[in-house]
Amino acid sequence: MTKSQFLFFYLILFSNITHPLLPTTPASFCGLQILDSLYRKMATSIASGSANLQFRETRCWRQTSFSPVVSQRCSNKFPWSDGVSNNLKIKKYHHHHPIPETQRPFQTVVTSCMKNESTTYFDFAVIGSGVAGLRYALEVAKHGSVAVITKAEPHESNTNYAQGGVSAVLCPSDSVESHMQDTIVAGAYLCDEETVRVVCTEGPERIRELIAMGASFDHGEDGNLHLAREGGHSHHRIVHAADMTGREIERALLKAIEKDPNISVFKHHFAIDLLTSQDGLDMICHGVDTINTETQKVVRFISKVTLLASGGAGHIYPSTTNPPVATGDGIAMAHRAQAVISNMEFVQFHPTALADEGLPIPSTKSRDNSFLITEAVRGDGGILYNLDMERFMPMYDERAELAPRDVVARSIDDQLKKRNDKYVLLDISHRSRDQILSHFPNIAAECLKYGLDITRHPIPVVPAAHYMCGGVKAGLQGETNVLGLYVAGEVACTGLHGANRLASNSLLEALVFAQRAVNPSIQHMKESYIDHQTVSQWWDPPVVPMQLGSIILSKILKRTKQVRNELQSIMWAYVGIVRSTTWLKTAERRIGELELEWEAYLFQQGWEPTMVGLEACEMRNLFCCAKLVVSSALTRHESRGLHYTIDFPHVDEESRLPTIIFPCSMNTTWSSRQLHKQQIC
Known about the structure:
alpha/beta; 9-stranded mixed sheet; 19 helices; flavoprotein; L-aspartate oxidase activity; signal; Fum_R/Succ_DH_flav-like_C_sf
């Protein structure tokens, strides 16, 4: 069977298309068995770097409580290097023909065209205002109109909270090969080597571009960039701005955005669902529906190209370093839009978030997100102790405090469980006061608010959810299997991080893939023609539930907050740093029951499937992402990187393959379905 034949059958099975070679019933176990049979016939050994489509035997057709028919969204594993991963192809629309150059509208000075208050038109829609979204917007704005859609204020992103810095080979004694090796080792050898090489090679130029745009990084006494070292790195290669690097990058990018007349920023616009249509075998993205959370009005963005740069899903856990906006919206929307998802089991827990319980002066209110104590503190000589002031990291790893994050987080977790403590201590006070205050002014100031002087006393720390290594599967140019949809940043799974992200590689990846997505996006935009008047009417608009009344809406909001807390507690208890098959199955069952109970409550109160509200839509996205994490974790029968299970405590080389979650047509819950009916062209 050829690659094209297999993809043909796959796309038929997982779309609502009938074909004479297949049963006319909806894709269910009947269709799944056909695909399973195809997989088994194609099963072969994996040759690294092969361009051929090669699959291991499928072991994913099992029923769970998440869905009465399909559970794991067809999780399967295959190498990054095969024909449907980094070599995803962009096709022209079957029903849209390229326009001759003389007939194309002038692209460079196009501004948004308003159909009415509820619909806007742009060449490019960018969902997210972190480093990936802003850097991409600045480049594509040279070729068309751009809408930057952001959930809160433009600066409120994971980028703004990134303390440590950006890793890049900028020192003569360092090398691309060394950076690659560090990345692959940290990623537990699950990284895609081609992606790693691309990012490590192109990274230095992306740093120089930021400096040219006005980003200010720390310099040493010799006038050169001061390069820090962090856990997992063999060289000093971290470019930083004290301990507020992300904030400085965000400042420089937003300043440039403000000056660009082709870019319109829509703050407080929460993305609800991608607008997609199906043309033959192709799924096509035409923009996104949003709700303006200040006016409570639905706003539709029609675009030729959409970039998802919406960040991660840290708030599926009760304690996270992510800002409140990180509720997995992009991953969930992409999944509902039939995008392929990958490696969701690999959730990085940062080993050192500030433990409020250990502070001299207790906090008077709970935090929306945990305060991060950057990796650079350990890179600068910080030592971890338990509460008896016993240094423990050398017992777990020969690299001690400079071990990768997954190792350090598990070591701390083990200490806390063995000793029944609530936190450990990170001590940097043996360094000079001036050095500490110059390198970590933000951390020092935050701790001093609660009576802790880090130049004299150790910092209480505890692991917290920090980064999603999985996400929407992307090719080397940020492309997805949905035409017109590109991804960059934490929402994407490019293959760079493998099973565990190397410190300070996240901002680097965002910069590199934002740039790499530019040229194919421009080409796609130029070759696309959208009849705005027609396309905007394809989908019924979502409805804001004002008619339910304030009393009912208040009850729904209260119950949704309770459900959110319950979901987070389940994820921490059963899908945390250390896992087991029993715990994962318990999480699977309890999350499924909780979701059904919550949805039943909503509908009993008069809620309808087309209704939208910030809290309810965040909740559906959290459910969606939590289920993706659990189902992915259940398919990996080994311990690798961030996924550690006591039932399979060792690495299994036969399992050294990414987890892939294909879209399925049988979505039975509100969180799994798009609000609008799919348009078939």
